[in-house]
Design goal:
CATH topology: Ribosomal Protein S8, Chain: A, domain 1
Distance between the termini: 47 Å
Largest sheet: 3 strands, antiparallel
Oligomer: single chain
Helix content: 40-55%
CATH class: Alpha Beta
């Protein structure tokens, strides 16, 4: 009984850490996009760390949902983002 509760607690804690890690990555990418936009560019390139590679699909889906064009360069671990078609937030 207690083992099940402990395992459930560990599982929820791990999921919480993953959610926070994804949120941090997403917000970092959004800041990079905003910085590039402030400098007059609609294109951004973001290097993704090895620890964040598991989030590429979710990040791409989220950014494309905002109307951005996203291309993943797996060899160089770079995300190329074109915001020219993105809606204003």
């Amino acid at each position: 009984m207690f083992d099940d509760d402990a395992e459930d607690t560990r599982s929820r804690a791990e999921q919480g850490k993953k959610n926070e890690q994804f949120r941090d990555l997403y917000m970092g990418v959004k800041m990079e996009i905003a910085d590039d936009a402030d400098n007059g560019s609609v294109k951004s390139t973001v290097r993704i760390g090895k620890g964040d590679l598991e989030f590429i699909d979710a990040l791409t889906e989220r950014l494309e949902g905002e109307g951005r064009s996203v291309k993943w360069d797996e060899d160089n671990r770079r995300l190329h983002i074109d915001s020219s078609e993105a809606s204003e937030e």
